[in-house]
Write a structure and sequence with these properties.
Structural class: mainly beta
Shape: globular
Radius of gyration: 22 Å
Distance between the termini: 46 Å
């Protein structure tokens, strides 16, 4: 085992970051705020080693009830109990374009075909016990495998070709067996799995935060091959404050993470943190540094780092784009790490990109989504963008970013093109609301043909919580999605006052064919609490081969 407890230091770097935005800046939507609020924190990993084979150390997950989400972290933006004024949403879509499988005539809303569609980890799956909520369902598709990871804390590896389980359910901290410290002993969740298509490697992470006292850790493992059951290079990165809600993206210049950071006592929001880990060295199992910036606690939270779809390449010299939601704008930051010469690392922003008016779903309480046969209301998590921020660079050189969040009238989504423009703008946007059923917790991605796919949760007084999918083709009317496809209809409601739902879902694109979407999220089979289920589905749109 290799340990390094040396803090390299605090490196002064030019950084333009956000303070609390003025109304005039939000209205104009083009000003880049340039108020420095801190310095880059540069530190090495505190621990690293090599795991020869995950297959040899994998153990089943614990059956102990953890109820991880009971700690009740305060939200960065407290809810007042007073609803926001309902505004007219000018981009609400209440009708569906006709589907057309011919090559002539009519709008061409894409036809979705479901391939694999099977249960992931959840209640009733052999070897797995639901012991926390929400599941924080996440997954990624590789060259031959699909990996799903959930709170619980467990993961499983599946054959992409058949859906058959190759490994699991396995305790997530099995990945750090023999590593020592909190990464080995804690199994705290907020898990993320990603496939680095550039290097053909898996990257798996979860935080280690119990007992709730500093230091806290983000535990990161990088596979040595494209086989998720094989060997890993393992790392622990340390923080003195609580690194909640981690999100992660692959980029040639680093592995980019974002966190909502709370103080160690879990009583106050410290600010959003953006970190880059030295990907080049981590792919070799070498000692690696992290470069981090922390925004003001009155600034943006819920930052999403941009993550390439499929085998899409990132334009040379491009930063990692990070975006947060504001009431009438998207706030975009640019983070470009330089691990050879850290003084050249830059983190700038935000550029404010105006969006169409909307009212946040559950604006008064955060929890308002109805279900059949219960008074328990579900959490919309509408105060932030839904994971993930999809990046695709197309053959013609254009770059597109897509993401979504929940609005009171439906599922709001955005496309930003050419984010490096002096004044980036929304290329198109829409609020998907073909029926009165609530749609939230979306996850978006883009295939090589420019089709968008979005998976999401649905619920209403007559519809039990389930999973659906919608898509659009480049030739469709701007700001519209096509007909819904049901992935799984829920047959139960979540009860007994358990309101947390999600907190996130995952949509990724097959790096081999660059066409097939893979979506995973939560649904309910039977009415109750702490008995959630998850589903994994692959979807392909007509015309993408």
């Amino acid at each position: 085992m290799i340990k390094n407890n040396h803090m390299i230091g605090i490196f002064a770097a030019a950084v333009a970051v956000a303070l609390s935005p003025s109304a005039s800046a939000q209205t104009k939507g083009t000003a880049e705020e340039a108020s420095p609020i801190g310095k880059m924190e540069l530190a090495s990993e505190v621990q690293r080693d090599v795991l020869p084979s995950l297959r040899d150390v994998a153990v089943p997950p614990s059956k102990d009830r953890r109820i991880r989400e009971s700690r009740g972290l305060p939200r960065p933006r407290p809810y007042t109990g007073i609803p926001q004024p309902e505004v007219v949403d000018p981009v609400t879509q209440i009708s569906i374009p006709l589907q057309n499988t011919s090559k002539t005539g009519g709008p061409l809303a894409p036809v979705a075909t479901i391939g694999r569609n099977f249960d992931g980890l959840g209640n009733g799956i052999a070897g797995f016990t639901v012991n926390s909520a929400p599941p924080d369902t996440h997954g990624a598709v590789g060259t031959t495998q699909y990996v799903q990871i959930v709170n619980g804390s467990a993961f499983a590896v599946y054959s992409k070709a058949t859906g058959a389980k190759i490994l699991g359910p396995t305790s997530t901290n099995s990945i750090w067996a023999g590593f020592g410290g909190k990464c080995q002993t804690a199994n705290d969740g907020d898990p993320i799995v990603n496939f680095d298509a550039i290097a053909q490697r898996w990257v798996i992470s979860q935080f280690a935060v119990s007992p709730s006292a500093a230091p806290f850790f983000e535990c990161v493992a990088v596979s040595q091959t494209a086989d998720a059951t094989g060997g890993y290079f393992r790392y622990a990165f340390s923080y003195n404050d609580f690194p909640d809600f981690p999100k992660f993206a692959v980029h040639p210049t680093g592995y980019y993470f974002t966190f909502n950071v709370f103080n160690a006592a879990l009583t106050a929001f410290v600010g959003s943190r953006a970190c880059a880990y030295d990907r080049t060295r981590m792919l070799q199992g070498l000692s690696a540094t992290q470069q981090c910036f922390t925004l003001s606690p009155t600034s943006d939270f819920g930052l999403l780092p941009s993550d390439p779809d499929g085998s899409s390449t990132v334009a040379a010299g491009s930063p990692n784009y990070m975006i947060a939601k504001r009431s009438n704008a998207l706030a975009m930051y640019k983070f470009k790490a330089n691990f050879v010469t850290p003084s050249l690392t830059t983190f700038t922003g935000p550029k404010l990109i105006p969006v169409a008016a909307y009212t946040e779903l559950c604006s008064a309480t955060g929890t308002c989504i109805v279900q059949p046969s219960t008074t328990t209301r579900l959490d919309a998590l509408a105060d932030r963008l839904s994971s993930r921020l999809s990046y695709r660079r197309y053959a013609d050189g254009r770059v597109s970013l897509v993401t979504s969040h929940a609005a009171s009238t439906g599922l709001r989504w955005y496309e930003i093109r050419n984010p490096d423009a002096t004044t980036p703008v929304i290329f198109q946007q829409g609020t998907y609301a073909p029926t009165t059923t609530t749609r939230w917790l979306g996850a978006m991605a883009q295939d090589k043909n420019g089709n968008f796919g979005i998976g999401y949760s649905v619920s209403s007084s007559g519809v039990r919580p389930g999973m659906r999918f919608a898509a659009r083709a480049p030739t469709d009317t701007a700001g519209t999605l096509g007909a819904e496809t049901t992935i799984i209809a829920g047959t139960g409601s979540q009860t007994n006052g358990l309101t947390r739902w999600g907190d996130y879902a995952s949509m990724t694109v097959d790096p081999v064919d660059n066409c097939t979407f893979w979506f995973t999220s939560e649904y309910m089979k039977t009415t109750g609490s702490f008995n959630w289920n998850t589903r994994i589905a692959s979807i392909k749109l007509a015309g993408c081969i």
